[in-house]
Amino acid sequence: MPKRYDYTMKDVQEVYDGPGGLLWEAVMSEQIHSGAERTTEELAQALGLQKGQHVLDVCSALGAPARHIAKKYGVKVTGLDMTRTMNEKAVQRTKEAGLDSLIDFVEGNGMDMPFKANTFDVVWGQEAWCYVTNKDQLAAECFRVLKPGGKLGFTDWVITGKVEEDLLAKLYESMSFPYMETYEGWQGVLKKAGFKVLDAQDQTEDYAKCFDEYKPMVEEKLKPTIIKNFGEDLFGFATGLVNMWRDAAHAHKVGRGFYIAEKPK
Ligand SMILES: C[S@@+](CC[C@H](N)C(=O)[O-])C[C@H]1O[C@@H](n2cnc3c(N)ncnc32)[C@H](O)[C@@H]1O
User: Fold this and answer.
1) S-S: 186 plus which of 90, 181, 246, 262, CB 3.0-4.6 Å?
2) Is 86 part of a structural domain of the chain?
3) Which among 81, 154, 176 is the best mutation to test ligand 1's pocket, defined by most ligand atoms within 8 Å of the CB?
4) How many structural domains compose the chain?
């Protein structure tokens, strides 16, 4: 089992309530995950989303993936996120996009979801579950709220190789991650929760390429904005963070895991 660090839900909320949320949006786009719309589309197609299905997006942040899939596939989406600022922005942007009849947002914890059992056709997540302090509890909740025969599809930042303990501690500290699952470890967590794993992909190479794009974006394009809005210290922190994760991804130590699983009928 991966070693856990003492970052709490409150630490994560402080990141997304503060400059962290704004910074990640500036770097990654409103879809706060590597690959933006491209990887949202990849997940949507792997899940075979159908009009009328009810999708739960766990850790929905600004709600951009929810808007993308509601608009393109005609699915209903409920976004669940524990950070109020993120939820408020998600609600406002969804209203502005005229999609509020298809999408709602609920403030809550992925490890203790405020939904009844067997509610959703699909449970969805993108590059956020690395923040969740107990992945077994999260997977058990995903299983509980899915209808029998329903599908779970998500991507996450995972350990994909051998990482030195001191580097791992620095990577976690830079992001306030309590721990990341390993690429294989997530499959074990899913099976333990009762899921049948249908597909798993180690997407570290693509993830590393995304960080190649973030490097000049942070070091050059966004430099004046970051310094003006957040100061030199945050600029130094952001460039250090991007370079550290980029190097670790190119060394195939960390990356993106992609998983599709099913709750048996
Ligand atoms: C990287 S953002 C998610 C990005 C989003 N999935 C997307 O693709 O646009 C991380 C989000 O996870 C949320 N989060 C972290 N732990 C959570 C938990 N235990 N329950 C609910 N939300 C959580 C944070 O509040 C934050 O908004």
Assistant:
1) 181
2) no
3) 81
4) 1
